[in-house]
Amino acid sequence: MNDSWIETVEYHSSHHNFKKIPQNSTMPQIAFCGRSNSGKSSLINAILGKKELVHVSSTPGKTRSLNFFLLNKKIFLVDLPGFGYAKASHSVRDYLEEVVNGYLNHVDTLRILFILCDAKRPFPEEEKNLIPVCLKRNILPVVVRTKIDKLNQKEKEKVKKESLSLIKEHPGLACIHTSSKNRDGIQDIRDLLKEF
Ligand SMILES: Nc1nc2c(ncn2[C@@H]2O[C@H](COP(=O)(O)OP(=O)(O)OP(=O)(O)O)[C@@H](O)[C@H]2O)c(=O)[nH]1
Ligand SMILES: [Mg+2]
């Protein structure tokens, strides 16, 4: 494994207003979205090999801003706020949806959207709907089924089947199964990022 291409990683900025995010045509963005608690922050930390660069919440629903990290001084990794956290009030939920959808509609330097979903949960319709939106806009959609360390063999087979049928339905989609805990699938994601 040679990941010497990861030279520098730093926190860049946080934004509540998607209209104020940094956009620079020479700096592609790679974003991570998904329900609260789906494992976005943990995954970014695992990819970058940093334990605590991104805040991992003990109380889910904590990431409420768009958090930008800079990789090798040229690629933005964007940790999007998790939406649909059941305990959050409706107004917070609406806000998150507005911010996430606002970002997706506003950004024009987004190259990859990682769509995370806890492998124990069914893949939601709303997330599914993001796939054709990405493909139409030349953004590579990557479905990431997270926390696979929690699955038994039978459950793993089921998730594999679900992913294969998603890919069949949406040619051009990539699916990766990950565990930030035991690092399954992390190298696959790094290899994808390396293309930049
Ligand atoms: N077993 C296991 N637990 C995980 C994994 N990834 C994340 N978790 C746990 O799941 C919880 C949520 O993880 P986060 O990374 O904070 O999730 P998030 O999507 O960033 O959540 P929000 O910021 O609330 O949107 C934490 O308790 C993590 O420790 C994994 O691969 N395996
Ligand atoms: Mg988070």
Overview of the structural elements:
- The longest helix has 17 residues, at 90-106.
- This protein has helices at 40-48, 90-106, 125-136, 153-169, 186-194; strands at 9-15, 29-34, 66-71, 75-79, 110-118, 140-146, 174-177.
- The chain has five helices and seven strands, in the order ββαββαβαβαβα.
- Helix 1 packs across helix 5.
- By secondary structure, the protein is an alpha/beta fold.
- The two termini are 18 Å apart.
Computed over alpha carbons, the radius of gyration is: 16 Å
Beta-strand content: 15-25%
- The helix-and-strand class reads alpha/beta
User: Could you list the spans in which at least 5 consecutive residues all have pLDDT below 50?
Assistant: none
Give the total of beta strands.
7
* CATH topology term: Rossmann fold
CATH superfamily: P-loop containing nucleotide triphosphate hydrolases
- The termini sit apart by 18 Å
How large is the count of helical segments?
A: 5
- The percent range for helix content is 25-40%
